Amino acid sequence: MLFTEYARGVTLTELVAASPGRMADLLHLVRQELAPVLRSPDVVALVDRAPIVERAVPGTFLRKFSGINGAVYLGQLPCGNLLRDIVLRLRRANASPTFTSSRPVVFGDLKPEHVLFPSDGGRPSFIDPGLMRNPPCADLAKLLSRLFLDLVACRPGEDAVRVVLEQAAVHTDVAAAHLSAPEESALLRQLVALWLMDTTNILTTYLSHPTGLPLTRIGAAVVSEAGAVCRMLDLCTSALVSLRSGRDLWRLCLVHVAQAATR
After folding, report:
1. Backbone angles phi, psi at 14, to 5 degrees
2. What is the pTM of this model?
3. Domain containing 204: what range?
4. How many domains would you assign to the chain?
5. Is residue 53's pLDDT more than 80?
6. What is the crossing angle of helices 181-207 and 226-242, to 10°?
7. Residue 2 above 60 pLDDT?
8. Distant-in-sequence contacts of 217-226, Cβ < 8 A, 24+ apart
9. Burial of residue 251, with CB atoms counted within 10 A of its CB: 0-12 exposed, 13-18 middle, 19 or more buried
10. Does any domain span residue 3?
11. Contacts of 52 (CB under 8 A, 6+ apart)
């Protein structure tokens, strides 16, 4: 374990909870801060010499749910049959030839709690990187997965949920503005697939947590709302299989998140 200097500040999770209407601007700031660093020739060379591939969302997903061990694991969980269907759809989506083959360097473990904003309004700090080559939307997928899961597990109220989801849509519109329609569709489909894989990874980890060991606050909240999370994943992965338009898929999945968080 490598210990570096202490990082102080308010996490992205906390800022979004306190000011949902700032989320698009905060996500843009995160992207703006990281982009030049991740494109740096020195960083790219470092990643190519020693990538940290273990934290990639698809890699974690496939390790957890492949083969006999994956089937046994799912069978031991609450909602196991539904989760099995969800996993099968996501495995099919992960093999899609429509996804981009681009693999730039990404932060790799960009959870909202790994982004810290100082109280004086200065530049954010980023902790616990897992630098690797991955799809360009991988970092955003992990951020949205955690922020959306917080909405479903903690249920902050209809107004907060609506604003957060509107802000997510605004951010993706801006991020994809330079793309052609087919490129945007592929990006949004891949974003949704990675988000749903990450949420499935998190949910199943919490559901298989050893009895008697303490869970984090958010972990306990996710377990208590596991049925709602599973229903959301079921609806979203069904849409991922049936809808070809990335924009239609993205918008429908936001509706499913809203329903799960405000039922």
Report:
1. -65, -40
2. 0.94
3. 10-262
4. 1
5. no
6. 150
7. no
8. 218/149, 218/150, 218/153, 218/154, 221/153, 221/154, 222/149, 222/152, 222/153, 224/153, 225/152, 225/153, 225/155, 226/78, 226/79
9. middle
10. no
11. 108, 130, 131, 132
